[in-house]
Amino acid sequence: MTASTNVPFTWEHIQQKLGLTVGSPKAAALGTQSSVFAPSDINSLMQTRCKDGERTEHLTKLAGTLVASGVGEAECILQCLLWNSKNIEPLETEKVTRTCESIIASDRRNHPERYPVNLANVPLFDLDAGRIDKYISTNPPPYRWLLKDTLVLGKVGAIIALGGSSKSQLLLQIGIGVATGIPIAEHWEIGDPGGVLILFAEDDNDEIHRRFARVQHHLRLAGKGKELTGIEKRLYIFSTVGTSALLTERASSGEVKVTVNVDRIVALAAQIPDLRLIVIDPASRFRGGDENKNEDATRFVEALEKIAKATGASVLIAHHSSKASYNSEVEPNQGASRGASGLTDGLRWQMNLNRPSISQASELGVPKESLSRYVAATVTKSNYSATHAPVFLERMDDGYLSAVSAAQAQQRAEQDAIMRILAVLQTHGSMSARKIEDDYGGVKGTLNLPKERVRDMVKIGRQQGLLEGGDRKPLTISSLGADFLRFDAAPEDAMRGKKSPPRKKSQ
């Protein structure tokens, strides 16, 4: 007998033969077949016995129905052979098999997603690609640092802190530093300056404007105006308030998946020349799923890594710390991140911002009433360098962050305390040191200083020539103290730039 030709069927041909109502292969791809083809339809087709002239058409209809209902290739052929065996005059087994294979081949071309490739025996990598010859014959490439000796370019990191701990302020200063090459908070040096993209999800454009103006003001007063030139070509800031910018979200299947916003951010970043940094603040506004599930946290890190890999830039996020980190007796650690540990585990770099712990406060050496002005910046995880000692940052009244040593912090705390005492004398006139201590010191005093602290500051103020009198004489403001008060009326950062209080003029 002459063998039949194996002719592939198109979906249109199958639909015509079967009299189906499925509109297109696209509809089939959406998984609607199971609702179109009920088991009763297949049972009816299986029970139909055909004679010569009916068999091929019925076989096509049966095979197409089985494939469209999601039956696998082997099962489809088996069922069709079973049906054929009940016919009055069965078709040749080879023809049944070829017809099923033809219909399945057509479906495979139109819907490859329904036919996952069996990779069980396919190597994960080309073995030659894993050869270590290149490690032996060449020198390793040096690190490219975003922040010298702490944060490597092209990696994902985070700043972890409680709400209101200046995460966004520091990230803005980092962005400005990377875009200009100006050291961040007068401390961290920029390794590889360049373009910056910042996405703020909690601050609107007006607040971003105010913060940027304050940072720019401080830098210009510090003589960095030249470095700021051209920053508008390197720094781009967007407020995403009121905008859905999720990088991951939970799908209908319950699995958290990466969204198209990852590719859209990559496309946006591609327009910025020499991009070095992308800031995403805060993480909670850009991630879906459950932040307490490691699997969901890992998907978010993978989304960030995809952005870093596609752009070559470092990606820094802001994230809130856990309730446990509220305890000032707990030293900063990489477990301070709120939610699943999978987030910190996936990051390559982490910095914690916190109010100085008890031991840090002792190291800083400032009185308790002044601690609220300071935050400790501690790198708790760095996969590419040793961690460094905490850096203490003073928060100016306008929010600007400036690194200080313990000696500088103590000196500034003294200046603040003396300034308050001078202000009291300026407002209420001369009075005895005891009266200042009793009436304005203590828990309820307007100086907000312990009485013993007031006594010590009066002594230091006299030694520096800012106060006159004492020793049973009323205290008054000296001419030098008056100059000091006038100087304090200038912008705070100008005063902060003063390395030491005025010295008493020699007689």
UniProtKB/TrEMBL annotation:
One Pfam family, short name: PriCT_1
Gene3D superfamilies documented for this protein: P-loop containing nucleotide triphosphate hydrolases
Alphabetical list of InterPro entries matching this protein: P-loop_NTPase, PriCT_1, RepA
Domain Primase C-terminal, first and last residues per copy: 51-103
Full protein name: Primase C-terminal 1 domain-containing protein
